[in-house]
Amino acid sequence: MAARLGLVFFPAFDWAISPTHPEREERLLYTKDQLFEEGVLDLPGVVEYRARPASFKDVARVHFCVPQVKSLAGEAHLVAAGSAIHLAEAWRRGEIKRGFALVRPPGHHARRVVHGNRGFCNINNEAIMIEYLRRHYGVRRIAIVDTDVHHGDGTQDIYYHDPEVLFISLHQDGRTLYPGTGSVNELGGPGAFGYTLNVPLPPRTNDEGILYVMEELVLPVLADFQPELIVNSAGQDNHYSDPLADMCFTAQGYAQLNALLKPDLCVLEGGYSIEGALPYVNLAIILALAGYDYSRVREPDYDPSAFPLTPAHREYIRSLVRELKRIWQNREELAWQNRPTGDFAEFRRRVFYDTDGIEEFQEEKVRLCPRCPGYQEISSYGLYPDGRRLEVLALSLPLQACEECQREAREAYSHHKEKRTSKYAVIYLQDRPADRYYHYYPATDREEVL
């Protein structure tokens, strides 16, 4: 019989941005101490798995790392992503009903192209886990519900053109918090319009507001979408004591959210109230996921009357939910109304890497194909603090790519490789249908294949 819940811990003792940075090992050490003290790991049906690393190929299935995977994915990053994969395999094999990967470094700000660290993230743990499941176990229809206080812009970017992956993000309004994205009008690319839903909540939103969004929007959309797998991008920085944000969620709120959502797999993201929130929030979440009573889990300073939802905020949240439900219900019609003309849709982005001080400029072309989501071609250059300018060209074939798109993308890669286009430091082909990942370096006429 399957266990109720599988857990994996990886506090990454040897990785830190700096000794006093909020993203440090104590985030998980206090939690694990609390779980030992409460005897949670001795509860029937709760099992712990060992951490293990992902491979460079697992990373290349998701990311274009500049200039190569090993320069951005260190041992800690690989073990964090690999531990999520390990738990996902246990879920897929039927060993566990649910799983929670309590790992760091986090990942949901890591986009397809990665020049460095932004938002404390180098590689996207949950996307690497999801793409592993899609490749090796045939899981196709997936829903990601991101409950970190910061918009999951990296995960959104990775799945923006994929109609088989529904991405829903509940976050503090980007006009008031990093990374400044996640507005309602970010709805997905031409081939996946409506499969990205952002819920930008006003600062000081409490349990009532967030749980209202869950009950009135997220659960009905999930019931309609009918995913094979539900993943919770489990940020805990919506908590009222978190030093990096301004929301009012509680440990009880987190537990109720998970009891409602019933995610198959959770992957830890942010949360920086190391002593005041994380031990209680994680304990409440774990009890809820395992089906145990969580009603007595309280923060020492918990006061349910301390964070009232104002009438204005209540009405704003309700109007937001109404608008997003309208979009979801009419997504096919709206997709046709908003579909660009021509053979390609074009997008331009400017991405700032706050941790590493890199400025990235992207131009993306998406093939408008009537048979599949279409391949993507991304030209990206990064301006680095040391004065370097690195430019790359990245071609990405989705798993569902039709034969024509596969041929076009592979020919485009071969064309650039034959030309040895000198302005590019690297030319990539992410060939997901073949599960082969090419990195060509024009300056040395060298190709790596993962």
TrEMBL record:
Coiled-coil regions listed in the entry: none
Gene Ontology biological-process entries: epigenetic regulation of gene expression
Superkingdom of source: Bacteria
InterPro entries noted in UniProt: HDACs, His_deacetylse_dom, His_deacetylse_dom_sf, Ureohydrolase_dom_sf
Molecular functions (GO terms): histone deacetylase activity
Domain Histone deacetylase per the UniProt entry, residue ranges: 75-275
Family according to the record: Belongs to the histone deacetylase family.
Cited PANTHER family: HISTONE DEACETYLASE HDAC1 (PTHR10625:SF10), HISTONE DEACETYLASE HDAC1-RELATED (PTHR10625)
Protein name from the UniProt record: Histone deacetylase
Species the sequence originates in: Ammonifex degensii (strain DSM 10501 / KC4)
